[in-house]
Amino acid sequence: MKASIHRPTRIEVDLSAISHNLQQVKSHLPSKTQVFAVVKANAYGHGSSVVARSLLEEVDGFCVSNVDEALELRQAGVTKDILVLGVVPVGALDLALAENIIVTVASREWLEIVDKDLLKGLRLHIKVDTGMGRIGFRDSRLINEVLADLRLHKAQVEGIFTHFATADQVDETQFQTQLAAFKQILTELDDIPSLVHASNSATSIWHADTVFNMVRLGNVLYGLNPSGRALSLPYTIRPALSLVSELVQTKQLEIGATIGYGATYTSSGEEYIGTVPIGYADGLIRRMQDFHVLVDGHICPIVGRVSMDQITIRMPKPYPLGTRVTLIGQEGSATISAQDWADYLGTINYEVACLLSDRIPRFYR
Ligand SMILES: *Cc1c(COP(=O)(O)O)cnc(C)c1O
To answer: Among 67, 167, 307, 338, fewest CB within 10 Å belongs to which?
Structure first.
């Protein structure tokens, strides 16, 4: 879908905030730690090509979830290392090889169906499942066999990694179990690949002492707290994304007027109602009804149903067409964060950022 640029709804991404956040995390990690920026899912809705290009000088590489996301970066001129974190369909390996994309090996079954000719020169990281139960090897004997096989076929095994399920939680039990399992597996390997990594944002922030020699930073780069509100951050980060629009109509409704599909809202007085061109097709889902936006520093409730393309808000007084409406971001002394949306929806800030659809154009400063 093409972004709708002839509409005042837009995402503003502050690239200097992303850089600031990266430097904050980096300055609290051992200085030789390699940093890969995770820009999967369109950089958590922030726009992967622009975000990646803006970080070129500050990171060692990028992580994405699939080959198409990697190709998008290559087409945008990103020549740095790109690691695909998910399982690459064997039919796409020729593309990975041609575009110098690093691939994750997560099972022997996968290796068995790979065209062995494609392994020569292919750059790989081994995924270890220490307790997520998703992808990865669970025992060292198997990894040793696979490593031997990969080397036989002249693949370049450059890294080994795992992923924590609970690094963003107060209770560290599961984290410590997974950490011990990973360390144990490393000691049992005949030969350890040069890059060893286990840290997502949460691990890099709250377990900065347990990085191996590389980290994979996603959420925190965008200025979000990976734990939601469970753990406080040891340093300040700045949210990079604002979601703004403008009033396209303001009207004064009489008492008893209804608003929106289902006529679920009835005005209880003479109310000033503003219409804003954003709806569930943009990721402002219907459950956002009764949440709020900011107009002129005032908190204005979303009244009536959220439509596909429009919402209606109740304002304290009439405002002219074109008045800025802030849906996520700061306006005067008031702020609405992605975390506020997440709290309201009963989800996590990651999901809020990813829900913002491609219909909304991204602008950068
Ligand atoms: C998405 C992902 C990350 C980044 O996680 P954040 O919490 O956003 O930092 C790191 N590693 C893997 C394997 C991932 O899938």
So the answer is: 307
Distance CA 290, CA 287 (A): 8
314 lines ligand 1 (CB under 6 A): no
Probe residue for ligand 1, chosen from 87, 130, 199, 216 as the CB with the greatest number of ligand atoms within 8 Å: 216
Q: What per-residue confidence (pLDDT) applies to 1?
A: 82
**Residues catalogued as catalytic:** 40, 261
CA–centroid distance, residue 333 to ligand 1 (Å): 32
Identify which of 180, 83, 79, 165 has the alpha carbon closest to the alpha carbon of residue 126: 83
CB of 21 within 6 A of ligand 1: the answer is no
Do residue 177 and residue 90 come from a single domain?
A: yes
Do 105 and 166 share a structural domain? Answer: yes
Q: How many CB atoms lie within 10 A of CB 222?
A: 28
Strand, coil or helix: what is 113? helix
Q: For ligand 1, say whether the CB of 200 is within 6 Å of any of its atoms.
A: yes
The tally of domains found in the chain comes to 2
pLDDT at 210: 87
Whether 54 and 153 map to the same domain: the answer is yes
Q: At what angle do helices 15-27 and 48-55 cross, to 10 degrees?
A: 50
Q: Whole-model pTM?
A: 0.97
62-91 residue pLDDT tens: 999 999 999 999 999 999 999 999 999 999
Crossing angle of helices 173-187 and 140-152, rounded to 10°: 50
Q: Give the closest residue (by CA) to ligand 1 atom 10.
A: 200
CA atoms of 305 and 313, how far apart (whole Å): 10
Ligand 1 mean position to 216 CA, how many Å? 6
Q: Which residue has the tokens 């703004």?
A: 244
DSSP 273: E
Q: Are residues 294 and 167 in the same domain?
A: no
